[in-house]
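FORM 7B - TANDEM STRUCTURE REPORT

SECTION 1: FIRST PROTEIN
SEQUENCE AND TOKENS:
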Amino acid sequence: MFDINNLLRDNIKRLVPYSSARDEFQGEASVFLDANENAFGSPLVQAFNRYPDPMQHQVKLRLSQIKGVPARNIFLGNGSDEAIDVLFRSFCNPGVDNVIIVPPTYGMYEVSANINDVAIKKVLLTDGYQLNLEGIAEAIDDNTKLIFICSPNNPTGNSINRDDIETLLANFHGIVVVDEAYINFSRQKTFIQELTEYANLVVLQTLSKAWGLAGLRVGMAFASEEIIEVMNKVKPPYNINEASQTLTLQALANVEQVNAWIKETLEQRDKLVLTLKDMTFVRDIYPSDANFILVKTTDAKGIYNYLVDNGIIVRNRNNVELCEGCLRITIGTPEENNKLIATLQQYQ
């Protein structure tokens, strides 16, 4: 049985969060003399002299409409990396607790664990890049607080079997974090729809990928109201700046444009896969539900350096376990993809 009080750090249970000026007053007023701001404005065309909404109410309301989940079940972070860090700081006692990750996977889980002095248990994915449920079950102990599952997975690109994730949710008494940074490109449905079924589920998403807002640093966590309340208590008071909130609201009004880009990205991905398959140095291209592909080659380092010399940057994943010989290639514009193909054809 999941009980959040059995997971929370004792100091977080006792924590009285910082109360900002914008927390204490909400509403309309003509004169604000409460937050020690510069009343004269900003040395910019647009004024940013006032602190932003600490709980990002307008952005959450718009996301609520798009995602079909109540605003009270949404946490916004300075990228999803902040949401990851907040989960560590909320639930994991440094030097005592541990988390499980399933390599190859997104590297920030391990970095955040190390920053927070939380032990990491690694259970490798299978050769088919799926969960090793038996290995995960063996790794869980009384101090295991979080399990991180990236689906679609980075760097492999594939979606993790949904039934396997639900098995973890049903049997693990800690929190299962499903990172869906690439869900907009996937054939699989989001786990957000399962929030009412699993109290121990946290779903991470981002506006950095399909939405094209990587420079604004806006990540999302979706969870039960009690988990979101804890995360809001732990986060810095003004973690999403006013410029990011304003521009995010403008972007969220353009769903049709984003959907068109997603469609074109998937078309370009399929074209790129077909072309690369015929190249002699390509050994395999793994199935992808993301906006990138993982390509196994005969000489990842050599090809990577050759592309760098020609002004094309991909990601060398050769040193990642189970990704030996692999390059991770993001799907670009048609022009960028054509340049990549033409350059690689000269390599053969």
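SECTION 2: SECOND PROTEIN
SEQUENCE AND TOKENS:
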Amino acid sequence: MESESAVTTCYRHPKVESHVRCTRCDRYICPNCMREAAVGHQCVECVKEGARSIRQARTAFGGRISTVPVVTYVLIGLNVLAYLAELLRSSVVDRFAMLGAGLADSEGGHYLWDFPYPSVLHAEGLVDGEWYRLLTGAFLHLPPTEGTFGIAHIVMNMFALWNIGRIVEAQLGRVRYLALYLLSALGGSVLVLLIVPDEQTIGASGAIFGIGAAYYVMARRLGMDMSGVNRFMAGLLIWLLISAGLTSWQGHLGGLLAGGLVTAAYAYAPRGPRRPLVQAAVCVGLLALLVVLAVLKVSALKTGAV
């Protein structure tokens, strides 16, 4: 009499009889664990392992391809939330706007910076250690009833961010795009600090000018039809000139220069495994330069050297 053959079961479901093996690891798998492969079937674990070993597609600038502009959505959301905070509490602008050096009294009055200053006043801004203003000011906008633009200030900025930001994020990838946005905002704030340290400024325009510069650099690198891009840049530069009399042209120019430099590093870094390191090195180098310039300027203000 012949002996009865041993019953084989799925390695993940021991109670389920199985007669099919994974073509990769040779373990028995049941129908619930089978995944179609080029030849035969594979188990769930081998499919996951194979997916990890597949090289992920990248954009022309080294970023991961994504179809949803998550960072742009988040940045718009943060700007809108900050604006709502301004509407609920007007002191938010005075507390978080970009300001290099200013003076305030105990009753909430604000005065231009002067050194030395009387004991009845106290310093405010970066000279008082409020370094966060370098970035927080880029998320604030004019209240509805103030300034030349009022609520149009945030509407125009968010409209521009929505239109250009999605294009730039899709090409750069989320990490590079976020670094571009923050460095552009920081570049705008630092140029404001260097030129008009006692002027309070707010708005995402510096960061958006940086994204505009990125759009131009990317288009040239990709060999796109430049007619539409040139018209966009012409409008941006015209607005830069007009803004000299209406808004902070220093913030706009600083963002434009920083964004152009960062994107040039993204676009022209040599291809290969060292490309991310070169791109990161330029970003870190620019960050260090901006920090050094800010520290030197604030130190000079605090000692009355300027």
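SECTION 3: OBSERVATIONS ON SECOND PROTEIN
The chain has a mean pLDDT of 87.
The radius of gyration is 28 Å.

SECTION 4: SIGNATURE
Preparer initials: ____
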